[in-house]
User: What shape does this take?
Amino acid sequence: MAVGVDVAATAGAVGVIVTWTSVMRVLVIPRGRSSALSRVVDRIVDATFQLAARRVHDYQRRDQLLAAQAPAYLLLLLATWLAAFLVAFTLLLWPWHPAFGGAAREAASSMFTLGFDATATPAPTILDVLAAATGLVVVALQIAYLPTLYAAFNRRETEVTMLASRAGSPPWGPELLARTRYGTRARTDDLPDYYALWERWAADVAESHTNYPVLTRFRSPQSHTSWLVGLLAVLDSAALLLALCPSRDGIEPRLCLRMGFTALQQIGLVLGLRVEGDPDPDLPLLLPYADYLAGVQRMTATGFPIERSAEEAWPHFRGWRANYERVAYDIARLTDAVPALWSGPRRWPAAPVTTVRPPNRIARDAR
Assistant: This one.
């Protein structure tokens, strides 16, 4: 019996180390590395929500259901850490108790600082202090973790929300360029600054979403908006601009594209997706050619000036989109983003949500 208790105590010590490693990697170390424990919790939560969402056919109701996935993951992860520490300290205290239940009672009393049970000998007292410190520190770290998450979420969503007026809802790359022709004059002169803004936005998202991967599961407040679909729309618009209008081949859309697909590749690696570091630009796109033609037609219908025909521009567009298409589609599928145009398939059968354009609010007699 003594040998079995010693083995259990050793397992408890290993359990404390493993669990603390998970806590440090998720909450403390600023590096895009998840722990095995956090990945298991994420898979359990994801499978549970997918099972529940499979029966919901309306997208808006499905989106409302999936909006609770990220908070559920955070709560279950905290509960898993506390449960793992409780079991580990119970195994460590077991040698000083005749029964496992007594050790569990003392471990729970210490971890949650209730103080109703303790063993008045040096070794268990040290373990009680460590258990109490562990419970307090883990809860405090999780509480301190939330403001960081929501600050990054708010920064991300500001530009995503503003994108609706430029690219519709859900956003679509051709729509972004088409809407520059509305009004009394074109607004293409502000596109370089806009792409520079989204280059910085993509860098911020790359930094925050690789350090805190749970942010990829935080959904936008509106059901038809998404950080991923928004970034995809901006990248598609930049690729279309460079492919169709060679005279507009400035540094800003190129840098936006570079930072955008770099961010997607980094986030994809953290999420455990298969990411090609240097995609072959000659591979066929997943986007059908007919859908590409429809996007170009949307631009030309508003009078957007193009310098190449759609057929001539296709190889150039294909070369740009090959850098980010597959990883963007994989992330969209994994995170169940809104099924917007040009954003790939989802884990459930879903037709693409057509982009809704803001209505004209000018009075009829002033138009």
